[in-house]
Amino acid sequence: MKEILAIIKPFKVDEVKDALTDMNIKGMTISEVMGFGRQKGHKEIYRGAEYQTDFVPKVEIKIAVNDEQVESVVNTIIDNAKTGKIGDGKIFIRPVEDVIRIRTSETGVEAL
């Protein structure tokens, strides 16, 4: 099993969520986060004054999948989150040692 953590632009969340749901992904966790990468934030103008924003709003999506689904899930996220512009985000893939469904005590892939 793997955990896929994707950090994407907020306006792409619905597209990515709908595409993953269409793939029969049963669950995901979505959080609003702030951060920066190579772009180091951005400049904005408010009432005629320019100011630097160090952190950019992003959305973090966490999904646990079995090993066979990783490539297709990653490709779906890329296809639906990509704008081709700086700040499109990152995807991290981490191993998951085990998972337990609290309600039924099921473990492993059955708990996903």
What distinguishing features does this structure have?
alpha+beta; single chain; Alpha-Beta Plaits; 6 strands; 112 residues; two-stranded antiparallel ribbon
Topology of this structure?
Elements: E1 2-8, H1 13-22, E2 29-35, E3 42-46, E4 49-53, E5 56-65, H2 70-81, E6 89-95
Antiparallel strand pairs: 1-5, 1-6, 2-5, 3-4
Helix pairs in contact: 1-2
Tell me what you see in this structure.
The chain is an alpha+beta fold. It has one domain: Alpha-Beta Plaits. About 20% of the residues lie in helices and about 35% in strands. It contains 2 helices and 6 strands; from the N terminus they run βαββββαβ. A hairpin with a 2-residue loop joins strand 3 and strand 4. The longest helix has 12 residues. It is elongated. The relative contact order is 0.31. The model has no long low-confidence stretch (mean pLDDT about 90).
Would you tell me which CATH topology applies?
Answer: Alpha-Beta Plaits
Largest sheet: 4 strands, antiparallel
Helix content: 10-25%
Number of helices: 2
Strand content: 35-45%
The whole-number mean of residue pLDDT values reads 91
Gyration radius from CA atoms, angstroms: 17 Å
Summarize the structure.
The protein is of the alpha+beta class and 112 residues long. 20% of the residues lie in helices and 37% in strands. The protein has a four-stranded antiparallel beta sheet, covered by helices on one side. It has a two-stranded antiparallel sheet with strand order 3-4.
